[in-house]
Design brief:
6 helices, mainly alpha, single chain
């Protein structure tokens, strides 16, 4: 949908703006409908700045998708996206990045990574 918006607007970054505006309004509405959130809203300013980089990463992913989907196709894009998340999760877990506990690389995880890469190859290059 963002790719189609980018096509209509002629700009991938601009297509991201209405997406995040609707996401913000929706998130605020859901938070308000699920109970009193005044105390939680006040805590937002105490979030460490590094946690807010998730918004930057999300914007980059959405802008990237609006650029890549028309060029790669939606199937290949999602295979690359999910496999990248799986492999990144393994790396983040191994090094204990972003506040997650470190977890050792096991033979099963290594074989799983090889299978993910093989799956990407099969889907992408047939």
């Amino acid at each position: 949908m963002i790719a189609q918006s980018a096509k209509i607007l002629g700009s991938a970054p601009l297509a991201n703006v209405p997406f995040f505006a609707v996401a913000l309004v929706s998130s605020l509405a859901i938070a308000a409908m699920t109970g009193s959130r005044a105390a939680q809203f006040q805590k937002v300013v105490s979030l460490p700045l590094w946690l807010l980089t998730a918004g930057i990463m999300s914007a980059g992913m959405i802008i990237g998708s609006s650029y890549l989907i028309p060029r790669l196709g939606i199937g290949v894009y999602f295979v690359l996206l999910v496999s990248g998340q799986i492999l990144a999760g393994m790396v983040f877990g191994y090094f204990g990045l972003f506040g997650v506990p470190a977890s050792p690389l096991t033979l099963g995880k290594a074989l799983g990574a090889v299978m993910v890469i093989a799956g990407v190859y099969l889907v992408t290059f047939r």
